[in-house]
Design goal:
It contains eleven helices and 16 strands. By secondary structure, it is α/β, with parallel strands linked by helices. The chain has two domains: about 60 residues, DNA polymerase, domain 1, CATH 1.10.150; about 300 residues, TIM Barrel (Alpha-Beta Barrel), CATH 3.20.20.70. α10 links the parallel β12 and β13. α5 runs parallel beside α6 and α7 packs parallel to α9. The structure holds S-adenosyl-L-homocysteine and iron/sulfur cluster. S-adenosyl-L-homocysteine binds next to β10 and β12.
């Protein structure tokens, strides 16, 4: 192979690492800030066009580094404005990223791994097993591609992406360092400048890593609960056998306690017909969550072939929600978006060919006031 593979990919350098890089070639800190702006705000990957750097520096950089972007192999846009990209990563595996526009925000759902080792029984990403971690460049590359899709190269981009949720493929806390570096880029003013409240990491409950996360960052936290007791959660989320509910709830509270502001956790609860959607479950969930400052996000199950689960009727979902609300909880139902482009939550498997499946897209933390029968909006 050519020497390109040995060049440092600046796309994947966090602000701190970018400074280290420029220091290593004898340059000052502010060069790192300039470079972050060129890459992440202007979408510029050609050093010769970075005119606020000297010609000598630009030539030096061209020798040792590059801005290597993920290859977009498939892109689709739904009638409702939801967009999906499939990006080919180093090594050939594909990863999916979804953008969901709403009235007052635009949310990007980002993947952290190819596949997932945790094997939750209702998740098609889990069903495909674990392939590998994504690099920082591959994680932030998803944000880059989405952000740049809204503007012409070389122009300063508009802020179409206001929120990022680490809810695509993979368990972000099992790719800790790369996810944390990528989130630092999302929040850096020279890169994407997102508020820490608007970057959300979703975990199925890797307790020790939740503690570690609270030591290094203060993004918002979503916890994928899905069951109100250990017996049921052991079946749905096998990781529960290692870190049972009591420990998970305690870790969630420890994380919230480390945040500098008062913020709630989002509790995700994927609802499966006849499995975890009974009123008994609602009552148990309500009791359990009295101990945590949180908002509850109900996610009606997204079917996929041979999953063995069904989505509950809208009435069952509403009944469950209404009970929780009556007990004083803040509850939302994740809305369905992009159902014509196969951009489904928990169904992201990086497929390009299979466009026959029609599926639904649920997004996080959406206030769903308006409900339409048949299709949740
Ligand atoms: N691994 C992390 C983040 C990725 S999964 C986690 O589990 O939190 C993102 C969310 O999608 C999780 O809440 C997950 O439970 C949910 N999900 C997975 N499969 C789903 C399905 N088939 N239908 C609806 N939601 C699903
Ligand atoms: Fe992994 Fe999350 Fe899917 Fe569970 S729900 S298998 S943790 S991606």
């Amino acid at each position: 192979m050519s020497d390109t593979n040995q060049k440092i990919n600046l796309l994947g350098l966090s602000p701190a690492r970018m400074e280290e890089f420029f220091a290593s070639i004898g340059e000052k800190k502010f060069r790192a800030q300039q470079m972050l702006k060129w890459i992440h705000q202007y979408g510029e990957s050609d050093f010769s066009k970075m005119t606020n750097m000297s010609k000598a520096l630009r030539e030096k950089m061209a020798d040792v580094c590059e801005v290597r972007l993920p290859e977009v192999v498939y892109e689709d846009i739904s009638a409702d404005g939801t967009r999906k990209w499939v990006m080919r990563m180093d090594g050939g595996s594909a990863v999916e990223t979804v953008y969901i526009p709403e009235k007052d925000r635009g949310t990007l759902c980002v993947s952290s791994q190819i596949g997932c080792a945790l094997d939750c029984s209702f998740c098609s990403t889990g069903k495909q097993g674990f392939n590998r971690d994504l690099s920082v460049a591959e994680i932030i590359g998803q944000v880059y591609v989405a952000a740049m899709s809204f503007h012409a190269p070389g122009e300063r981009r508009e802020r179409k992406i206001t929120n990022v949720v680490m809810m695509g493929m993979g368990e972000p806390l099992l790719n800790f360092d790369n996810v944390v570096d990528a989130m630092h880029l999302m929040m850096d003013d020279n890169a994407y400048g997102l508020s820490k409240r608007r970057v959300t990491l979703s975990t199925s409950g890797v307790v020790p890593m939740m503690d570690k996360l609270g030591d290094v960052t203060d993004v918002s936290l979503a916890v994928s609960l899905h069951a109100p007791n250990d017996e049921l959660r052991n079946q749905l989320v096998p990781l529960n056998k290692k870190y049972p509910l009591k420990e998970l709830i305690a870790a969630t509270n420890r994380y919230l306690g480390k945040l500098p502001d008062k913020r709630k956790a989002t509790i995700e609860y994927t609802m499966m017909d006849g499995v975890n959607d009974s009123m008994e479950c609602a009552a148990q969930l309500s009791d359990l969550l009295q101990q945590v400052p949180c908002k509850i996000n109900l996610i009606p199950f997204n079917p996929f072939p041979n999953s063995g689960y069904r989505r509950p009727s809208n009435n069952r979902v509403y009944r469950f929600r209404d009970y929780l609300i009556s007990q004083g909880h803040v509850v939302t139902i994740r809305s369905t978006r992009g159902d014509d482009i196969d951009a489904a939550c928990g169904q992201l498997v990086g497929r390009v060919e299979d466009k026959t499946r029609r599926s639904q897209r649920y997004i996080d933390a959406v206030q769903v006031e308006e409900q339409k029968p048949g299709k949740m909006l």
